[in-house]
Write a structure and sequence with these properties.
single chain, 252 residues, Spore Coat Polysaccharide Biosynthesis Protein SpsA, Chain A, 10 helices, disordered C terminus
């Protein structure tokens, strides 16, 4: 039996976590596959205690850890995952439809890539039927990485073999470790095969640590430049800032 490992990191997500779990348990898993669901939660998750007990009843593996940041928690979950394919569904997000996991598995079986990615939509709790916006990966190419753009991180699904080659997330980034991970995935030295899917994989709650204007203009931009430099791309701070110009010119 093959496994799809889904890792959910939560930090007092309250009703958002319950929404995420119900969407995960509703997934239609193809024959020959099983779902391994791992939740990484802190020891002080009082608001989530009832939901986490419900998760255990559904067969989820609940790991308690006082993580040193989001990426530390993600890495902890990855280290406990045993599936052939690994993906993330954060506690405040949820799969966009009941057949998302089935379509992800189908893509891996049909095209045999090392990793796939798709689109995400941003929603607000209580108004899920009216998405705020869509973050599309359609038309993505390597030049986008060099400008500071990457596919939406929650849409990433990767094989265990590819993850062993690329390694875990770097925990010394504040909020751009997901971008740095994509830089490594697309680095030519790994020779990984990828496929962009015409699929909305994830609904994301419309907030996040990298969403403020100050964070996007300064912390996030500097970390993205650092990620490119550390992986062999020469790029100035001005060029990384120009990604906003490319964004508004080409992605209307």
């Amino acid at each position: 039996m093959k496994k799809l490992s889904i890792i959910t990191v939560t930090h007092n997500d309250g009703p958002l976590l319950e929404r995420a779990l119900r969407a995960i348990y509703a997934q239609q898993i193809p024959a020959g596959w099983e779902l391994e669901h791992i939740i990484v939660a802190g020891n002080d998750e009082a608001d989530n205690r009832t939901t986490l007990n419900m998760a255990k009843e559904h067969g989820s593996i609940v790991l308690r850890k006082e993580a040193a940041g989001c990426y530390n928690a993600i890495n902890y979950g990855i280290q406990h995952a045993t599936g052939q394919i690994i993906g993330l569904v954060h506690g405040s997000d949820y799969p966009a439809s009941v057949n998302v996991f089935a379509r992800i598995i189908e893509a891996f079986e049909t095209h045999t890539p090392d990793f796939v990615f798709g689109d995400v939509v941003f929603v607000r709790y209580g108004h899920e039927d009216s998405p705020v916006r869509r973050y599309s990966s359609q038309g993505f190419n390597i030049k986008d990485i060099q400008r500071g753009f990457a596919p939406p991180h929650p849409s990433l699904f990767i094989t265990r073999e590819a993850m062993l080659k690329v390694g875990l997330y770097k925990e010394n980034y504040r909020n751009a470790a997901d971008f740095e991970y994509f830089v490594r995935l697309f680095a030519g030295s790994h020779n990984l095969r990828w496929k962009a899917l015409r699929l909305v994989t994830t609904c994301m709650e419309s907030h996040g640590s990298s969403s403020t204007l100050r964070s996007r203009l300064f912390t996030n931009s500097m970390e993205k430049r650092r990620a490119l430099l550390e992986n062999g791309y020469q790029i100035s701070y001005l060029r990384i800032m120009l990604r906003y110009f490319y964004h508004f010119r080409n992605r209307k």
